[in-house]
Amino acid sequence: MKRRLDEAIDSYLAFAALEKGLAENTLAGYERDLKQFASFAVNKAGVGKLNDINETVVSDWIYALSDRGISNASLCRKLSSLRMLNAYLLREEWISRSFVELVAGPKLIRKAPDALSVKEMEGLLETPDLTTPMGLRDRAILEMLYSSGLRVSELCEAKLQQFDIANGAVKVYGKGSKERVVPMGFQAVIALSGYLEQGRPHLVKSKTGSACFLSNRGSPISRKTVWALLKKYAAKAGIAKPVKPHGLRHSFATHLLSGGADLRVIQELLGHADISTTQIYTTVETERVRTAHDEYHPRSKGASDI
User: Fewest CB atoms within 10 A around its CB: which of 31, 53, 166, 173?
Assistant: First the structure.
């Protein structure tokens, strides 16, 4: 029996959700990538059956995405999603040969994350209006993203019981539901306490659960809302470059490294499984040191001409 590609994708996604226990956001990303490929295979390549999928179809998809200006990082992620589907189908004997084995992914150049300066970060933190419940909430959100380096999904999903105000710590459930305990800075504790005592009670509705950060409707705050409030406060603070939730996480790590923190400690705080993911921050510090040397060392002038 010839199986359809969409049938295979649905089977893999069900497996990934139940057996692998992938996070909801991760699973949603895989689903988008795979269904995008299925749409291309059927509508552009005229292929809908599993046995007709081959390296040519996959390569044509990658090239088509590249021609649309999709970044190499996104292309690598999409190809990774397809490789995981391929591995599942081989293991379950839905297919007899790989359709991605000979497909070379685009070269991924890891660039240093765009972090805010300490001055920019201080300006951003001062922008919320602390006389309103929403302002108290927003200040606490900014402080938590920067002080503890949380992912935006970790912040949005955080429950009240995860916060230990007395000891200045928060229990975080990261990717793959991995648990870590992260310190909260003094200013973050003050901001969070102010929100919990004077802000959150005004946002609670009859059906509100234990989510810490609430919308004006009393439901857990969404990632989209956090993105929007960051954009608003960045403009108010006069920060010209784009400011995203992950940018505050980058700033957290970069400022720790600049202050002398050990890379392994930063890895643990960020919840990175592999130290190589954390090492990208050394690029930022190396560039900072290089710039300082070029600017201030008397023997540095003209070095680029040698």
Answer: 166
Give the residue numbers marked as catalytic: 151, 175, 246, 249, 272, 281
**Higher model confidence: residue 293 or residue 189?**
189
Q: Is the pTM of this model over 0.90?
A: no
- DSSP code per residue over 232-272: HHHHHTT--S---HHHHHHHHHHHHHHTT--HHHHHHHHT-
Per-residue pLDDT, averaged over 4-33, amounts to 86
Q: Kindly report, residue by residue over 123-151, the tens digit of the pLDDT.
A: 999 999 999 999 999 999 999 999 999 99
Return the structure tokens found at 111: 């660039």
Nearest Cα to 252, choosing from 165, 164, 124, 143?
Answer: 143
Mean pLDDT comparison of 139-143, 182-186, 249-253, highest-scoring range: 139-143
The domains located in the chain, with CATH, are 5-91 (1.10.150), 118-246 (1.10.443.10)
Output phi, psi for 211, to 5 deg.
Answer: -60, 140
Q: Beta 179-183 vs 163-164: how paired, if at all?
A: unpaired
Q: Is 263 exposed, middle or buried (0-12, 13-18, 19+ CB in 10 A)?
A: middle
User: Looking at beta carbons, which pairs linking 213-218 to residues 24 or more positions away fall under 8 Å?
Assistant: 213/137, 213/140, 213/141, 213/155, 213/156, 213/158, 214/137, 216/134
CA dist 100 and 104 (Å) reads 8
Examine the pLDDT at 278 and tell me if it is beyond 80.
no
